[in-house]
Amino acid sequence: MVVDASKEDLLIGVCGAGAMGRGIVQVASVGGVRVKVFDINKEQLEEAFKFIDNMLGRAVEKGRMQQEARQDAVSRIELVGAISDLSDCEIVIEAATENLEIKKKIFAEIEDVVSDNTIIATNTSSLSVTTIASACKRPERIAGFHFFNPVPLMKLVEVIDGVLTEPCVGDQLMTLGSRMTREPVRLKDAPGFLVNQVGRGYNVETQHLQAECVGEFVDFDRILRDGAGFRMGPFELMDLTGLDVTHPASELIYRQFFDKPRYRPSPVMQSRMEAGILGRKTNRGYYVYENGKKLEPETKALPKYDGGPVWISKAEPDGHAALSDVANSCGAKIVTGDTPPDGALILVTPVGQEVTQTVVDQGLDATRTLGVDYLVGLGTHRTVVSNPATSIEYRDRALGLLNNDGVGATAIRDCPAFVCQRVLATICNIGCQIAQLGTAEPEDIDKAVVLGLNYPSGPLSFGETLGPKNVLKILEGLYTSYGDPRYRPSPWLRRRAMLGLSLFDKEI
User: Fold this and answer.
1) pLDDT computed for residue 209 by the predictor
2) If pLDDT is split at 50, 70 and 90, which confidence band does 300 have?
3) I want to staple 374 with a disulfide (CB 3.0 to 4.6 A). Which of 148, 160, 170, 349 is the partner?
């Protein structure tokens, strides 16, 4: 390949003028690249140009762009009426609908008109780059160039090497991505690539929690948003994206991994999709919407702390210390001793374990015992976990106590690893497995997830914050409780946790 993506007069083509295509055209033109745009729908093509012009005009009005720069960007865009008009383009980006047969047909048509040196890239979000390339005469020049919607706002672009892609192709797409003011991340072809693969650990895992009747969807949103620092809860996010988008993507990734348990979707998602409860687009998802605005569910007032005695287990020393500090700040009447006295609220801080199992292991009174997740969120939101025998009186005492300083608390039913521990460990485990398979470098995994999903941290950084040994303990606890290979720890995680290494450490 002799394409030089850094040259000043580079000419690229974009095939498809829908939401993704027009976004790609916009960032390319703003980045100083000349663009030819084709779409079989001439009306959509013209609408795309007007949309881009309008968006750049709004940028000028807001002071984010000079008028001259806007005019220069618009002048770099050329609308064309046939694929053959892309013949002189040095790089062509396909941004058509997510249908394998349609994409194969488009790639064959592009190959027939462009030169042998032209790089052809696909913006697919879920289809195999290698499979798309298999329909081409020269698969070595085919790569993935996956942007995120809305393209002008999402800074990440995934550059995906297919099995036969020549390294120089990805090199030039990395250069082009930077010229388009994106943050390019290089990876190997894999189901869901990188970002969409990691995303299964957030929305799918909480679907499994809801299916177990551990809590209500609004509880999980509150815990993960307020406690773990996510911008949106998983159910809010699924409503925004649309379940008709989220679930098929989850199912596709699962099937492409040959039904690997780690990516198994919840049947609940399928049922809700079939019922047409899709989210904002149908005005009803997990939440109800009016005029595009979410109607907040009614929240019950938390009980007040009754001043009763509180005993905190020392079995988890770090948990005992952290929870004792919080309880003291909340005005708790803490009692000490090796065993809890009669009438005392019993609080435990297990990692990866059910409250029920903790009760049995420590010989505690189940009716008075509740768990608290000390690893995540004690400073911003507290998760209080009952067991099947817990009395309402003691649950309310725990809730009242842990909300006594105004931080907020949510009660859920018993489950191993609670909510934050379970979800963050699952996300971390997927990230570690991506590193183990060499799909991307550890640093790139984190960068891509933060930029592509707006998570507060990347998967490996989540693991560093919790501690690799704790993440391993959580996953082993989940695996023991459920017997489900879904929670089998990645070798990347297990080895580094055992050796006391960082999850970013690479082998020689």
Assistant:
1) 95
2) confident
3) 349
> In this model, does residue 325 exceed pLDDT 90?
yes
Given 158, 166, 316, 354, the catalytic residue:
158
Pair 43, 159 in one domain: yes
In a domain, residue 4? The reply is no
Q: Provide, rounded to the nearest whole percent, the portion of the chain with pLDDT above 90.
A: 96
Residue 500: inside a domain:
no
Catalytic residue among 94, 128, 146, 490: 146
The whole-number pLDDT of residue 361 equals: 98
Which residues fall within 8 angstroms of residue 445, CB to CB, at 6 or more apart? 194, 198, 431, 434, 435, 458, 459, 460
pLDDT of the residue at 1: 63
Is 113 in the same domain as 224? no
196 is catalytic: yes
Q: Are residues 34 and 148 in the same domain?
A: yes
Residues 213 and 319 reside in one and the same domain: no
- Determine the pLDDT at residue 126: 87
Region of residue 331 (left: phi > 0; alpha: psi -120 to 50; beta: else)? left
Q: How far is 462 from 182, CA to CA, in rounded Å?
A: 24
Structure-block tokens of residue 360? 């049995």
pTM recorded for the entire structure: 0.95
Report the candidate in 404, 215, 378 with the shortest Cα–Cα distance to residue 310: 404
Q: What is the CATH number of the domain that holds 108?
A: 3.40.50.720
What residue numbers bound the domain in which 350 lies? 309-407
CATH number for the domain spanning 353: value is 3.40.50
Residues 223 and 354 in one domain: no
In the set 123, 128, 196, 404, the catalytic residue is 196
Mean pLDDT of the region 75-82 = 96
